[in-house]
Amino acid sequence: MTPLDPPGRTTRPVPATFLADADSPQREPVTARSAEPRPSAAARTPAADAVPTNAAPSCAVRSNAVPTGATPSGAAPVAPATATAAVPTGTLRLPEAPLPPAEVDRLLRGEHHDPHALLGAHPVHGGTAIRVLRPFAERVVVETAHGPAELTHQQNGLFTGLLAGTELPDYRLLVTYPGGEPLVQPDGYRTPPTLGELDLHLISEGRHEQLWQALGSHVRTVDGVDGTAFAVWAPNAVGVRLIGDFNHWDGTGHPMRSLGSSGIWELFVPGLAEGTQYKYEIHTRQGWVLDKADPLARAAQCPPGTASVVTSSAYRWQDGDWMAHRARTAHHRAPMSVYELHLPSWRPDLTGYREIAEELPGYLKDLGFTHVELMPVMEHPFGGSWGYQVSGYYAPTARLGGPDDFRYLVDTLHRHGIGVIVDWVPAHFPKDDFALARFDGEPLYEPADPQRAEHPDWGTLEFDYGRTEVRNFLVANAVYWCEEFHIDGLRVDAVASMLYLDYSREDGGWTPNRFGGRENLDAAAFLQEMNATVYRRCPGVVTIAEESTAWDGVTRPTDNGGLGFGLKWNMGWMHDSLVYMSKEPVHRKYHHNEITFSMVYAYSENYILPISHDEVVHGKQALISKMPGDWWQQRANHRAYLGFMWAHPGKQLLFMGQEFAQGAEWDHEQGPQWWVLDEQWPAAGDHRGVRDLVRDLNRTYRASPALWEQDTTPDGFRWLDGGAAEDNLLSFVRYAADGTPLVAVCNFSPVVRHGHRVGLPALTGRDQLWEEVLNTDAETYGGSGLGNSRPVKAEPTPWNGQPRSAELVLPPLATLWLRPV
Length: 821
Prior knowledge:
This protein has 821 residues and is α+β, with helices and mostly antiparallel strands. It is built from 17 helices and 39 strands. A hairpin with a 2-residue loop joins strand 12 and strand 13 (225-233). Helix 6 (353-367) packs parallel to helix 7 (403-415), helix 9 packs parallel to helix 11 (521-537) and helix 16 runs parallel beside helix 17 (684-702). The longest helix has 19 residues, at 684-702. The chain is elongated and about 110 Å long.
């Protein structure tokens, strides 16, 4: 979930003129600028206009080596010119090919829907008109097979000329700026649209499942000319121009054309290459000019910079074996032990994706985790949102490097046998003025109804799930991360806030659906479409819902009326079990139902048991600090709880720092308290002991199909004794698909119990011997060392509904696992 913005945060939301009814108390509005002519080029430099006035240096220094053939995101862009050339003296000046004043006015104001109809080469009465828009140029020469000819300056950078003949010639431009040599430039306004009819059809239908390949910026060759194609959806704009570091952030010379009813604006700019920084200059119906980052940008400037960056991937994946294995794996019947982390703060000394890739995979493999879950890696303006207020849905955050650097991290994790889950946030987006909010001057990605648009908890805006193009934007984005970055799972944030129209809203603050209910039917349909599309296109990927209500069928297949998620966070288990563990043992008998109630609904959905970042921030305390008693008892409770968690039906997730029982809440700037593991720290052995337990929990878990093979069916679980409230005891059996059992016994009391009889399943054709495979009270973990060091023989004494039983030693505040010898 997204943390509340701290008081005093200064951001750049959508102009107050547009969102006066939606201002968040945490954010300061700014005033939009009117569509006035900009200063001359002499007064505008890339250094001044490339980033906001509060921008920091580029984050490119945080990126490690780039693969061969790739360009670092901070590299200087190629100027839109290929060379310099001398213009022969005595060059013929062509007669003018003037445009009507009204057309020129619309063109120069940036409000012409089809500048390509005016610029470039066009047959006209008397010959072929060549028109070129080059603001601040002092001379433009067109060079054809017949030689050079100078164009006439009509006004404000518009140069025109009339060539003889109506056959459109091949030509190039020689453009001279004050004090410079002539620059050789192809004419981008002679090229056809770079989006085809099929792209436009799929976009209009909302079914372009690889939308990022059509919209955004793409380095490509058109008619033999190298450059970059740009395309953006802005159906309410009266004009769109491209601005960037290549044109001093003045879009006069780069108006884009509208592709009809699709709402898409397009432009090919010769000479622009990877590393170019850009935005779209949106001219609105209200007369405002908005500078917007590209919603489909696949790279972004490092915050606090807000520009989009042209990028292309040169990465060569080396995880073919992993991807093939993933496609064959049914995650419901496979082990899944997830380590959740926040990349920027996991190891603050590691400043890039590639540096993290040198440390993280080995750490996870050593501890035995099967997956890592990354809090949002998409670009976001405010670090204090932990990534949950996304501005660049298609761009990995530049704080840690470029897109190929992030690919390298995922690839390295895969080659170490670690799956990668990414938090994904389709529930809401921030109001910052450079991003999605009021993108073309009117509600576009958000609903037009302010009651529906406002997210009351976080001062953000919700998506309009009923709009075809918005759904396509989000569904394609989910596919994008799985296909382009080989992500193995998407954990969808804040699903409950999407599903209910009255979520966090008072009476009168929301509008019922068409049936008079509180369910957001458009959001439900979107989630079904997203899940169905991801599972169809990306074999082996799992989607996970953070959903905290009793919505029916979250993990039911879409063809059976469900939302179609693979797994759902079990928020009820998390809350109830932590309430129980927070009580002093003497009081736990009054809360016994808190620790057992989860089994009442354990098979209503496919669950994952989360101890996530949400549980160790905002005054909730670290996991060990929730536990009662002195330091020894806190650690014992912590260990016993983890043993119970790993044995309970469902996959499991643990947030960073809790694997070694750090005592403080998570701080996104400081990260985990790694120093408590240093030998100089007085309690280092205690913390290392907990980490050793987590390692053994994962090792034994992965080696025990009984703990994961039947997580989603009642056949995999049976209570032995779930009602020993007075003694703070629990015991149950987990079964593998072949019937192999594993028994878990939890003693949540500080009392040592000698000779405690526990029922045990009969072992057909075996010696009825059971061994203690895990004991959270072992000395190596910092416990007292009590337990059952030798195998115990199950006697033919019926107990707990089982035909056999054995007397065990139950250590204090401990969990035991036993399996047949």
